[in-house]
Give the backbone structure.
Amino acid sequence: MEKVQTVERFKEIIAQPLTTIAVFKTSWCPDCHFIDPFMPELEAQYEGKAVFFEVDAEALVDVAQQYHILGIPSFVAFKSSKETIRFVNKLRKTRPEIEQFTDRAIAVSEAV
């Protein structure tokens, strides 16, 4: 998963017509590290349907604030620079929950 380092790159990725999913994380967050082992498999599972990318909520504070990211990890889906759906709370996310969110994000993107 690409780790976005700049606001410009963030804007480039979310501008795609494909569903893009920003995963907001921090280095110190144990729940963020919990998802690390299975995220590569999820990326492969949704290849061609959705693109996941990582955003360090502390490194890109302006982006995190713009999208009101208060709990991490948080997932925000975009299509053509527009937010379509989000999975944001302070709880640990499981693989089935992330899959369910991704399926909904793809369905919403296809509907708009």
